[in-house]
Amino acid sequence: MRQFPFSFLEQPDAAPAGGWPDQSISTWTSTEGTAWLTEGTSLFNSSNTVSYGTPTYIATPAVGSCCFWAGGTLAPDGNIYVLGHLEDTMLVINTNTDVISTIAFPASIGANPSAHGGAYSAITNSLYFCTQYGIVFYNLTTATWSTAYAYPRSGVAQGFMLGPSWDGTKIYYHGFFSVREIMYFDTTTSTNVATGATYAGDRLGGGLSHNNKFFMGGGGGSTNLMTYDIATNTATGITGGTTIGADEYRNVVQHPNGYMYSMPGYGATAIKKIDPVTLTMTDDASTTSTGNWNSYRVGGDGKIYCVGASTILGIYDTVNQSMSTTTISGKYEGMSVGANGDIYCIPWASGTSIMKIPVVNGSVITPTNPTPYNGWTGRLQPT
Asked: Which position among 58, 71, 104, 211 has the lowest Cβ density within 10 Å, counted as fewest Cβ atoms?
């Protein structure tokens, strides 16, 4: 029986032979959750040969003055897809060639989708988005848009995407502003379902943990982070370490070391570390930077890369518990790792191009892991 390096994980009854767990399996268990951590730890760590270079910039199509696109979802075709917030297009980044294109959002649905993040399902080969009109999906096999499926609660002006859970047929999201509730879209019946699990304060970005719980950052009125337990259908606030002020921690990311992390902004300085099993949160380190980070991704070197509403790129080393920063051009609302390990940052504000943080040494592709994007799509990735 394989021995796992994570003391807080129960050893599964039957571990996979190796490699990323199959994202197209309808239902995951702790076996797949642990396999994701094991493969991630073997590939994305500070002792491997992968390193990143100086950010470069890729021109985007003509846009308005603000609030272009938000999110970034990698699909197995090697493209990153981002539906517009105030742009009536879906941005497409070919991460093998860096060619940029767009796909028009259907005028029959409406203008200004107001999307916040997206989710890819390997089961349906489709991309799912929360828009101001409801859930909309784009089928990559047929290259067609769906109609808009109305939210299950009236008054949902915007939704924030969370993504698929261990049950990959359900795409979870949460309401924003007036309706503060966890909901999901059932891909087998094309219906929206309200779970009844409500919470206080606005919630923003988040993601799934290795043990099938969603964790979310906070927005206005939120002085904690939050977890949603799918098994018990309960939303619970999480505090720990230094006191959290409103709107200071906007996202949460699962790291292959088993812990989840939230990066500071808007006055906060502590990096938050969460054990998703015990639901305890501590200050892992602190930084003097005021990066106002909204979006995070784990790179091929095991470090967490952060961008947001400032011209500061943050790079957090979970091993050395240290944050380094560098000045960048533009402001970004979303990140995604490309098929070859490069990190792409999604433009939000006027004058901002797509920013690419390139792999310059080593490779995240190995003979035993020819498709690393399998670990970066679907479950266990933030939106």
From this structure: 104
Span 174-194, pLDDT tens digits? 987 778 999 999 999 999 999
In Å, how far are 235, 355, 370 from 309, measured between CA atoms? 28, 14, 35
**CA distances, 152 to each of 8, 90, 175, 178, 239 (Å):** 37, 25, 10, 14, 30
In this structure, are residues 122 and 378 in contact, taking their beta carbons and an 8 Å threshold?
yes
pTM over cut 0.90: yes
Q: Token pair of 15, please? A: 């571990």
Backbone angles phi, psi at 38, to 5 degrees: -65, -45
DSSP assignment of 220-271, as one string? TT--SEEEEETTTTEEEEE--SSPPPTTS----EE-TTS-EEE---TT--EE
SS3 state of residue 89? strand
Cα angle value 83/89/92 (rounded, 5°): 65
Cβ–Cβ under 8 Å, residues 190 and 149: yes
pLDDT score recorded for residue 340: 86
Cα 299-269-294 angle, rounded to 5 deg: 50
Of the CATH numbers 2.130.10.10, 1.10.260.30, 3.40.630.30, 3.40.710.10, which one belongs to the domain with range 30-375?
A: 2.130.10.10
Mean of pLDDT over the chain: 87
Among 214, 212, 215, smallest CA distance to 272 is for 215
Q: What is the mean pLDDT of residues 94-110?
A: 95
Domains of the chain, by residue range, sit at 30-375
